[in-house]
Design brief:
heterodimer, A: 2 domains, ten-stranded mixed β-sheet, two-stranded antiparallel ribbon, 14 strands, 52% helix, B: alpha/beta, Rossmann fold, four-stranded antiparallel β-sheet, 10 strands, 29% strand, globular
């Protein structure tokens, strides 16, 4: 009988129910879109910030100690090296798949046509293979992805695989102008350890000090600095989870964590846990987060999440008011029917349950439709803001369903009060 | 044997007296017509007897028990178990068919039983219209469904508010015949009406005016 009454009410009041479902769908769609963006925004911002370079630097332990002691930039200390074979260890750590790019850096002073210039040896677009315990690790990596803001104004990016030999270079625009060279020209580079003749493959504008440098292959820089098989620093770009209290606590000292906290921290892609794992793999190295990137991420994330939460809240308040209006008018229209139920013996609770069941079922249908609409909204936001898809989260679906049921129940409060106050004697007989 | 007693029942709405110290006694199996012009207090009396309203003063005694001070929950249970209601405007639920409308009263009383509901419809001559929606039934047929709904839980008292007010003469006669049959079977009936023809067929006629009983007479046909 209850089922017949529910289906009957749906048939009779389908227009009203459709309006309620649409109201819920609209609220649910915005909530779905915002919650999904909120849950995915950390990764998205992370990806965005990847465009600003590496977020981890790896330097020799001794250099890091000097840097910590005297609060000086790591580049100011000299002649401490890491072995080139340690680069492979980045591919062996637990979070190796989160490391998207990395490149060694070896800088030295050289002289070109009587000008003292900083020369930096690194990987550009480098195919890297590493064997350990019978496993072969491979990665195409280099600064091509770590310097995405470089504007190549002459020539092209250096593709190491397509060039024979290693005597090539890219120079900053300022250096090129100073030397009067363009792409395809050759320069003679001298240092205390030797001389190299390099072909200019590309000239870039970066808007920073790197425009004053010459970038060449790691092997050339090693020969010119007499540090064969070594590098001074590695730049690492990793996809990380935004820092929270646990990450902050761990960053101070992982030994202070409890067993469970340690496991959670270690198995979460916090920048601090990735650094820790790099240090585990390369004991002679010290891995540090680039704080500007990590801090920017935290601030942008916090503000974006707050904005999303406010939009979600406003949409839910809007949905609540809409539902409240529609359900109240529905109960008013049905006052004779509901009064009749009371007149034949229905208790307030039974009538309230009947009406709420109708409304909640309608809301669930609306929420389901709204979820898919929200999925589309989220993708529009993802594509227009982050140029990538937003991953839909099961947690968001659950939250939306719980929120919509809560919104429906809260929105139905005025209607329930009306049901409780409904007097059959007034409705059915028209008073005295 | 007394079924219902009203003792000095007053119902006030502000300074307006809808009922003014009304006392009335109704025996089991009796058929009473309550008559009077509009605003005389007929519907108020019906609401108080059916427990859908409370008197401002006085007592309502049903089967010897004073129900005036009962809680709302108890009154709902009492009203559900003891009283069947028939309305002028039928008040059928328009998305349920005839038999389902009868079953609604069962549902809120105990358990819906389609077989019993069909028997109730058969009693009012509507078994073949059981699957029709109210919109597919004539006014007389809708009122008979309303009577079947009132009868389904075997109430001790049927309260009918202007049951023929919306019916043509032919349907009015059908409904009155049904009341005669119920009366013969021993059902107590209170019919509120301002239609003299309906009043004439009742066993006893109580006339109200300005919230007071101005006459209370047995009809001749029943006196003899």
């Amino acid at each position: 009988m209850f089922f017949r009454m529910i289906t009957g009410a749906f048939r009779r009041q389908w227009k009203k129910m459709l309006m309620i479902a649409l109201t819920v769908a609209l609220g649910a769609s915005i909530a779905t879109a915002m919650l999904n963006v909120m849950l995915d925004v950390g990764d998205k911002i992370n990806e965005e910030l990847k465009a600003y370079g590496s977020n981890i630097t790896v330097v020799p332990n001794s250099q890091a100690v000097m840097s910590d002691l005297y609060a000086v930039e790591e580049t100011e200390t000299k002649d401490e090296f890491l072995k080139e074979e340690t680069l492979g260890e980045f591919l062996t750590i637990f979070w190796a798949n989160n490391i998207t790019d990395f490149a060694p850096v070896l800088d030295t002073s050289v002289n070109v046509n009587g000008n003292d210039i900083q020369l930096i040896g690194t990987w550009f677009d480098h195919h890297f293979e590493f064997k350990k315990k019978g496993t072969v690790y491979q990665r195409d990596t280099g600064i091509i992805n770590l310097r995405s803001w470089w504007d190549i104004t002459d020539g092209k990016w250096m593709d190491e695989a397509k060039l024979s030999g290693d005597q090539y270079a890219m120079t900053g625009r300022k250096t090129a102008d100073m030397l009067g060279v363009s792409a395809g020209d050759r320069i003679t580079v001298k240092s205390s350890k030797g001389t190299e003749e390099l072909e200019i493959v590309g000239i870039f504008e970066s808007g920073d000090d790197e425009e004053d440098c010459i970038f060449t292959t790691l092997s050339v820089a090693q020969r010119l600095s007499g540090a064969e098989g070594k590098y001074k620093k590695a730049e690492v770009s990793a996809i990380t989870s935004p820092d929270d209290e646990l990450a902050v606590k761990a960053a101070k000292n992982p030994d202070l964590l409890s067993g469970d906290e340690y496991d959670l921290w270690y198995c979460t892609a916090y920048v601090s846990s990735i650094c820790f794992q790099i240090q585990e793999a390369i004991p002679e190295a010290s891995a540090r987060a680039v704080r500007q990137i990590a801090d920017s991420e935290g601030k942008i994330l916090e503000k974006t999440e707050l904005l999303m939460a406010l939009i979600t809240l406003m949409s839910l308040i809007g949905a609540t008011l809409g539902i409240s209006n529609l359900v109240t008018s529905s109960v008013m229209e049905r006052s004779a029917e509901l009064a009749l139920m009371k007149a034949v013996g229905a208790k307030n609770g039974q009538i309230t349950f009947l009406v709420l069941t109708e409304i909640v079922l309608t809301s669930i249908l609306g929420a389901a439709a709204g979820y898919f609409m929200g999925y589309a909204f989220a993708q529009v936001i993802g594509q227009s803001v982050f140029s990538s898809a937003i991953e839909m989260s099961g947690m968001a679906a659950f939250l939306v369903m719980v929120l919509i049921i809560a919104v429906t129940l809260v929105g139905s409060i005025p209607a329930v009060r009306m049901i409780l106050r409904l007097r059959p004697s007034e409705v059915l007989h028209g008073g005295h | 044997m007394k079924l219902l007693e009203l003792k000095d029942v007053t119902k006030r709405y502000g300074s307006l007296y809808a009922l003014d110290k009304v006392s009335l006694s109704i025996d089991k199996g009796e058929w009473i017509a309550i008559m009077g012009p509009s605003g005389s207090g007929k519907s108020t009396m019906m609401n108080i007897i059916s427990c859908m309203d409370r008197p401002t003063e006085g007592q309502v005694i049903f089967n010897g028990r004073d129900i005036t001070k009962d809680s709302r929950k108890k009154l709902t249970e009492f009203h559900r178990d003891k009283i069947g209601l028939v309305f002028q405007q039928f008040h059928l639920i328009n998305y349920l068919n005839a038999v389902e409308n009868v079953m609604v009263a069962q549902y809120y009383h105990s358990m819906p039983d389609e077989k019993e509901a069909l028997e109730a419809l058969e009693r009012v001559g509507l078994k073949d219209r059981a699957k029709h929606l109210p919109s597919q039934l004539s006014g007389g047929e809708q009122q008979r469904v309303c009577i079947a709904r009132a009868l389904i839980n075997s109430p001790e008292l049927i309260l009918a508010d202007e049951p023929t007010g919306n019916l043509d003469e032919a349907n009015e006669n059908i409904v009155l015949d049904l009341f005669r049959q119920l009366h013969k079977e021993g059902t107590s009936l209170i019919v509120v009406t301002h239609d003299p023809e309906v009043g004439e067929v009742a066993e006893r006629v109580v006339r109200l005016e300005h919230g007071k009983i101005i006459s209370d007479k047995k009809n001749n046909q029943f006196s003899e």
